[in-house]
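TODO from last week: model Multicopper oxidase CueO.
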Amino acid sequence: MITRRSMLGGALAAAGLPLLAPGILAGGEAHAAEALPPAGPRRAKDPVPPAFTTAMPVPTVLRPLSSTGAVDCYELTIRRSTAEILPGIATDVLTYGGHFPGPVIHARSGRRVLVRQHNDLGMPVTVHLHGGNVPSASDGNPMDVFAPGTARTYVYANRQPHASLWFHDHAHHMEAEHVYRGLSGTYLLTDDLEQSLPLPKGRYDVPITLRDARFDERGQLAYTMSDRNRTTVLANGRPTPYFEVAARKYRFRLLNGSNLRLFALSLSDGSPLTQIASDGGLLERPVAVPVLTLSPGERADVVVDFSRHTVGTRLVLTNTGPGRPEQVGKVLAFDVVRTADDPSSVPEVLRTLRPAAALPKAAVTRDIELSMDEDGRPDPRGFINGRMYDPDRVDTTVAFGSSEVWNVTNSNKRAPHNFHLHLVQFRVLERGGRPAGPTETGLKDTVRVMPGETVKLHVTFDGYRGDYVYHCHMLDHSAMGMMATFRVR
């Protein structure tokens, strides 16, 4: 078995990055709407600026190098770069093509995408299309890495409906730090159904990656395993920024790109967010959500209508998830700066999904237990069904085309977890013995599991044959070993 130390020891040291080390998470509250304030002074030795003094960028949309027939081809170099995350400071980051925040790839169902990834780092990497139904050779398995100075072409057939997906590094034991330092990007898959709806489009359809970070006094990203002091909230790579909007509807594609932090998001004026989609695409119907909860890796598309606010209004997206409110309670300010025509609308019915009662009959029911050491040891371990990840072991074998029910339980008393299955989108049947709520009735690939909680999932393995993994998507936990292999045959 390849161990954490044997794989990491030389690679990270040679690259000038700190070795992985131990820690856990923290507790929260909301804030009212505010008038536009002047910028305040910065604290001594604190490079993080006051809230809402930097603008949130919109991620760069990549253009294909070529588009021939039904194939779009892209080329990216995974490399070191610097980014101005904090004003006036060049922060070292890891990037896809020099982009921080990560770039956006637009794709369409039924049209193939080829991405040639060049590794210009001093360590091995692999690229996982999170939520993608892809053959195992292009899945980005944690052990299917490619070496420095080499390249790998990932082939995405896009044989699935529309969804807001993302891609990120998945090299085992290194995935947590690599993603933390910037190796993630957005992959927006669309189809005729989604395009036919009058939802906000173009410049009014904005991907937003939320995450946390900790900076040292030089403004550099500081990383240790399970660090509970990542208290600077970033939206599209900027600390608690503002985003100028028109007085009309916007679609925001929210991704929790954190390693560990759970977000509980709400608007400062008390109005609900209108959730229209989750991990695997549109919900059947829009849902008014007073507080939107996202664990790491989860996505939710929401529509916010700013037309009810006058020009000059500031609306704040707040967080009541774990952490001290004065540190992590403010996420992003929306500043209404102009009026605009708005031909968009949110239909009462977005798509048709098979009712839970009509899903294919499960051939097998499995029990999956997530756990980790909570005894304060300096090098905590993560487990699935009592075993750490072993890349030479197949933990679960499923029949191609079959449906199964998986009962996923978090047996820890304090530590939250979540659960991500590669290859497939699943349906959440129950949470804590009760039917799934309206925001979890759509297609999902990542689901939170709180201490002592069990979620019941329905999964159909009809994509591809091969070996894939399932794991906690709190990436520090998967790096500790909370991951397992399933084989579809």
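Done. The first helix runs from residue 4 to 15.
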